[in-house]
Amino acid sequence: MAIFKAPVDDTKYLINEFLDTSELNGNPMFDDMTPDLTDAIFEEAGNISESLLFPLNRSGDEQGCTWDDGSVTTPDGFKAAYDEMTASGWGNLTCQQEYGGQGLPHYVANAVDEMVIASNMSFSIYMGLTIGAYNAVNQFGSDTLKKTFLPNMVSGKWSGTMCLTEPHCGTDLGLIRTKAILSNDGSYNISGSKIFISAGEHDLTENILHLVLARTPDSPKGIKGISLFLVPKINLNTDGSLGNPNNVSCSGIEHKMGIKASSTCSMEFNESKGFLVGELNKGMKAMFIMMNGARIHVGIQGMALSHVSYCGAVDYAKERIQGRALKGPKHPEKAADPLIVHPDIRRMLLTMKAYTEGARALSTWLSFQLDVSHHADTEEQRQQANHLVSLLTPIFKSFLTDMGETVTSLGMQVYGGHGYIRENGMEQYLRDARICQIYEGANGIQALDLVGRKLPAHMGQYLRYFFHPLSQFIEENADNESVQMYIQPLSKSFTRLQNASLVIAQKGLSNPDEAGAAASEYLKLFGLVAMAYMWAQIAVQIKSDAGSMSEEFYDAKLKTSLFYMQRILPKTGALLSNIMSGSDNTMSLDAEQF
Ligand SMILES: Cc1cc2nc3c(=O)[nH]c(=O)nc-3n(C[C@H](O)[C@H](O)[C@H](O)COP(=O)(O)OP(=O)(O)OC[C@H]3O[C@@H](n4cnc5c(N)ncnc54)[C@H](O)[C@@H]3O)c2cc1C
Fold first, then answer.
1. In 3-state terms, what secondary structure has residue 481?
2. Whether 380 is catalytic
3. Phi, psi (deg, nearest 5) at residue 170
4. What's the 470 CA to ligand 1 centre distance in angstroms?
5. Which residues line ligand 1 at a C-beta cut-off of 6 Å?
6. Of all atoms in ligand 1, which is nearest to the CA of residue 198?
7. Average confidence (pLDDT) over 356-385
8. What is the number of the ligand 1 atom nearest to the C-alpha of 194?
9. Could you count the other beta carbons within 10 Å of the beta carbon of residue 183?
10. Contact 140, 228 (CB under 8 A)
11. Which of 169, 255, 325, 424 could in theory staple to 175 by disulfide, Cβ–Cβ 3.0 to 4.6 A?
């Protein structure tokens, strides 16, 4: 049977002891975040994820969504759970209070998100998409649009979508064909076909607000001519009540590998009334600004699925008896020892644990940087944090979602054949995790964003915002004997990252294929070092001043950190060799030779 325990203790530890929030001291929004308050939030989020959402995970996967003549029905129990989650405010944690939201910081909300996603990824997508759409309207919409649409999005009465993809264009959004024609009343008539639209149609809400990328007839070619429009499924009357349908229809849903309870819809817009969000032809700019939040959310999906897979794997490894410990029976009274005695099983479990907890630390810290980028006192602080988040977002998205695939696959491996069959739920996590590497910008595209945009940005300034504090941390701990087993591997891998950054920057200038061929491995190298930085800080902090968690908790953290440094981080050596080998080995084969 599938097992899920929300990571409440680890989250409390990270927020109360690991994270330094002093940069936002004095800001009432953050001063209110006392440990009593945040602990209560995490405990309640853990409870509702375990008791309400997780029991619907398997049944949702089995039943999936159904399409009938344009209507989509979500699996049994989803509507009631949606109503309960939105009524208790779990869908609007970061939304502004003036629209009915709770105005909580990202570092709190993202920790809650992990629990919700881990318990039921498909379900979480309906709520997550609405937040994405809310952010677009809140940041770029006119006052009228905000007043008209945001309160009902925040309450969960209406949901949102992001409509980018078309049959002939996914990554290359410059090819978008959906048309927007200006009407006499200042709104636009939107016509075109969108595919793969998550939550495009469903039975959870009375209205659905589509954020649609489209182009006006005279707009420039390519991405410079794309604008963003809000297109409701049902038009509103002047008093704000629901009016006539808006010619938005769902022509089908996809049958797919995972997240089967999340509807993935083909949408048709036929002269549907739409409202411009932001400036004409600046739709991609709005998208790019919003993408930091959305991509961080997808990275959290990879981490959340890793966590739930780990829960199952640990439980099984302690219960399942098979073979004997190599140094002699550990449980002679039983017919065999539990799987957890075997070094290879422990290697898999520790790999899962080290990645997942390292990712959670990275997520906590990065989410706080997102808060700093919005709320710090000075423009300089806000901008610096914004650049840091921009640099780390593609890394966070790709590294954590690749990790999601690795970890959920290991989770299945721990179960052996019992993981491959459906009965125990482990294969669902792997199936659900796989999409995270593809949507919200495929991982290869994230790597190109990193080497093509983020590395050269402001003459390498973004990079320095990460490298400087990391160098300083290594220097500060250079003479501390008790932590060298963490600091030295970190320092060695950091040197590799610096070398790789230099080589890619230099070679990429004369031959862009050099940067392109190295991009994915460079991103992975960066992710491994960023995670090592988290694990080293955890170790240094615990060694110098352990807090209020149990001794056993800190001991496990130190041992897991060491495992990461000794058994995972060395992968950076092989990655550097690959990067240094150049692009000829990748580019010299003619297309016909494949
Ligand atoms: C379940 C699901 C849910 C989705 N939800 C949404 C949604 O809500 N809204 C929405 O708008 N879309 C959604 N999508 C679409 C998703 O974002 C796209 O599938 C994704 O952006 C990739 O586009 P594509 O499938 O057309 O692949 P392509 O763009 O054809 O890419 C194919 C491969 O080529 C690589 N590639 C492409 N261009 C380059 C390049 N220039 N250099 C190097 N490599 C390149 C890509 O990395 C990828 O590996 C969803 C998709 C799925 C499957």
1. helix
2. no
3. -120, -75
4. 34
5. 162-165, 170-171, 196-198, 256, 264, 435, 438-439, 442, 444-445, 448
6. 8
7. 96
8. 11
9. 12
10. yes
11. 169
Angle at 558 between CA 25 and CA 483, to 5 degrees: 80
User: Given 440, 476, 514, 592, which residue is catalytic?
Assistant: 440
* CA of 538 relative to ligand 1 center, distance in Å: 36
Kind and range of the H or E element at 117? helix 106-119
Ligand 1 pocket: which of 226, 445, 446, 450 to mutate (most atoms within 8 A of CB): 445
Residues contacting 7, CB < 8 A, separation 6+: 46, 114, 115, 118, 307, 360
- Rounded to an integer, the average pLDDT of 25-38 is 92
CA 291 to chain CA centroid, Å, is 11
pLDDT digit string (tens) for 228-286? Answer: 999 999 999 999 999 999 999 999 999 999 999 999 999 999 999 999 999 999 999 88
Residue nearest to atom 50 of ligand 1 (CA): 196
pLDDT at 502: 95
Centroid of ligand 1 to alpha carbon of 291 (angstroms): 14
pLDDT tens digits, one per residue of 408-429: 999 999 999 999 999 999 999 9
Residue 41, both tokens: 């939030």
Domain 54-88+120-281 fold is Butyryl-CoA Dehydrogenase, subunit A; domain 2 (2.40.110)
pLDDT at residue 545, as a whole number: 86
SS3 state at 267? strand
> Is the pTM for the entire model greater than 0.85?
yes
Report how far ligand 1's centroid is from the alpha carbon of 173 (Å): 10
Computed over every residue of the chain, the mean pLDDT equals 96
- Using CA atoms, how far apart are residues 138 and 49, in angstroms rounded to an integer? 28
Strand segments, DSSP code E, in 183-322 are 188-198, 207-214, 227-232, 234-236, 242-245, 248-253, 264-277
| Distance from C-alpha of 52 to C-alpha of 57, rounded to nearest angstrom | 10
Question: Could you give the CA distance from residue 112 to residue 93 in angstroms, rounded to a whole number?
Answer: 9
What CA–CA distances, in Å, run from 325 to 336, 347, 353, 415, 461?
Answer: 9, 14, 22, 18, 52
Q: Are strands 158-163 and 207-214 parallel, antiparallel or unpaired?
A: parallel
Q: Which residue's structure tokens are 């264009």?
A: 169
